[in-house]
Amino acid sequence: MGLIRLLILAALVYVGWLLVKRLLRASGGGPVGGGGRRADAPPRSERMVKCQQCGVHVPEGEAFLHRHLTFCSQEHQRQYLERHER
User: 26: which DSSP letter?
Assistant: First the structure.
């Protein structure tokens, strides 16, 4: 008889948890520190570009640009330009 009560209690707790989760999702709330992004939203992607000096790929937003060339760091940009623009 104790096992049946335990199973019923576990089922009630689970159903309650699902309801609270659904209510939080419907109200736009959620766990603190959720990042402000919906769980079903796809991750933001950014185009990767190749460093002209070393060949490493970096996100376009982090790359250093010179004319149409991209670099992973200012140091590699400087090295490349010293070697190729004499």
Answer: H
* CB of 49 closer than 8 Å to CB of 63: yes
**Model confidence, pTM:** 0.49
Mean pLDDT, range 28-36, rounded to an integer: 55
Query: DSSP readout, 74-86?
Result: HHHHHHHHHHH--
Rounded Cα distance between 39 and 33, Å, is: 13
**Under a CB-based contact definition with an 8 Å cutoff, are residues 68 and 55 in contact?**
no
Model pLDDT for residues 63-74, shown as the tens digit of each residue: 999 999 999 999
CB 61 within 8 A of CB 44: no
Tokens of 62: 């982090």
pLDDT value of position 30 = 56
What is the spatial distance between Cα 48 and Cα 55, in angstroms, rounded to a whole number? 11
In total, the chain counts a number of residues equal to: 86
